[in-house]
Amino acid sequence: MKLILSYCASVILVLSLLVNAALALDPASIAGETQANTLCPVSNKAVNPAITVVYEGRTWAFAEEACKTQWEKARAESLYQQLGGKAAIDAAVEAFYVKVLADERVKHFFDDVSMEKQRRKQKEFLSAALGGPLPWTGKDMRKAHAGMEIKEEHFNAIAENLVATLKDLKISDEMIGKVIAVVATTKDDVLNRPKKAE
Ligand code: HEM
């Protein structure tokens, strides 16, 4: 029995050494990156694992070189990257909700809302809307704000807080204008009013 137990212990030890060695040899695990995607974010076809790029610590794989080029161009041209990427958007959303929760015009809307979740969701939404690499997977803006009786003055107060936040972060007026233009595309949905004809 003792012999069997010590045999099992040795097998477990050897296996764990092998797993550790394999992890150490994997460059993605060294960099702390997540596992690469299996479907190309551009063509939706199966990826070629040899065609990759590391962006904000995450490995992205593509079906073809052309997809990778297109994806990298989209990132470079995005407001998301021009603003400073994930770190900048996250910091902006944190500071934005400090202002929102101090704003008498709108703070009551968030009385029963988990602000931890709200900050996380807003980071995800704004990142996607500004051209970040990850898609928005939450509710559409009409459903998310349904039944809240949000009026134009509330929307404007929220937008005003966002502008003030971006100004505090020394973002240029030109860039702020572009961000607000993106946020404005949600207005009809947030106010739950019919979409204006183009
Ligand atoms: C200015 C554009 C706005 C954007 C981009 C936006 C974005 C979002 C997002 C991403 C969520 C989370 C949705 C989800 O759970 O999947 C959310 C929820 C919410 N929004 Fe907005 N929002 C906007 C305007 C407003 C305004 C004007 C108000 C009120 C003054 C407001 C109040 C809320 C509240 C209270 C929730 C939480 C709903 C809940 O979890 O019960 N939002 N919003």
- In the sheet with the most strands, the strands line up as 1-2
CATH class category name of the largest domain:
Mainly Alpha
Helical stretch count?
A: 10
**Strand share of the residues?**
5-15%
- Assembly status: single chain
Unreliable parts: 11-32
Q: What would you call the shape?
A: elongated
Write the element-wise H/E pattern from the N-terminal end onward: HHEEHHHHHHHH
Report the CATH topology name of the largest domain: Globin-like
Query: How would you name the CATH homologous superfamily of the largest domain?
Result: Globins
Distance between the termini: 80 Å
Which CATH architecture of the largest domain is right?
Orthogonal Bundle
Rg computed from alpha carbons, rounded to a whole number of angstroms:
23 Å
Bound molecules: protoporphyrin IX containing FE
Report the sheet with the most strands, covering strand number, pairing sense and barrel closure: 2 strands, antiparallel
